């Protein structure tokens, strides 16, 4: 799956992933009204508002970006209706030719990890029929439980052509409290040790570009660590969150790319979905044109990333 992602990044000349993290507060009034008139102010009403919102944003950006990253938490908080919209969003994005990164950050003992693996990137069999309930192309995982919590996903990478992004150095301000602790030889920080494991786990899954189906999450908000990780993990592709709403600039994350301008895909969720609420875009687009504002934000981000990589 990493080859397909890199092919798409190359074809579009855009290493951007649009994060699909809808919140009611960022949904324009006309969309909320439409959903609430049909379903009431209920969990289903909120979820359907997300669906209408996501669908329009996908329609506005699918020809510009290689991938989208729905964040499961935003959907799960509305229960079964929210999860239904998470699944419909994945299906719709895939129909539009987008690679889908399910940001689900799972972590558990092997037998439970197997269930996550089968459900999210594999198949579950009921009677004689095999179902693929979620169908993300990549999912995010937390490696804290060690290799046997990650291994159950490995056969699915080849069998179903899938990929993983494993948390290595996260973008949150407090990530250093645990991730920067000296853990390896010569006081190496924990994130370097985890990064080394990810590089090793990924070895059998390398593709045409030398990158593995097993990638790493590396926050844009930690520029020095990002550059260091790029140096020591030459075969590990990075999913880089933290640009925009969390304060990281294109310059901050430039070190996550390799000398060919590959090796990373940069996420922006609020910065793109809620662009219509920002003064700079609100001057140009009405709330009804929210998806066009998102499109403009994607084009601006692309230009910004290119400038930083020059
Ligand atoms: O280290 C991490 C890992 C994941 N995320 C997720 O990325 C998006 C960021 O959203 P923005 O609105 O662009 O800040 C969100 O889904 C996070 O859960 C992260 O930010 N940092």
UniProtKB/TrEMBL annotation:
Pathway this chain belongs to: Pyrimidine metabolism; UMP biosynthesis via de novo pathway; UMP from orotate: step 2/2
Domain annotation Orotidine 5'-phosphate decarboxylase: ranges: 15-285
Active site positions: 105 (proton donor)
Keyword terms of this UniProt record: Decarboxylase, Lyase, Pyrimidine biosynthesis
InterPro entries: Aldolase_TIM (IPR013785), OMPdecase_AS (IPR018089), OMPdecase_type-2 (IPR011995), OMPdeCOase_dom (IPR001754), RibuloseP-bd_barrel (IPR011060)
Catalytic activity: orotidine 5'-phosphate + H(+) = UMP + CO2
SMART domains, A to Z: OMPdecase
Gene Ontology molecular function: orotidine-5'-phosphate decarboxylase activity
EC number(s) per entry: 4.1.1.23
Biological process according to GO: 'de novo' pyrimidine nucleobase biosynthetic process; 'de novo' UMP biosynthetic process
Family from the record: Belongs to the OMP decarboxylase family. Type 2 subfamily.
Protein name: Orotidine 5'-phosphate decarboxylase
Species for this entry: Bianquea renquensis
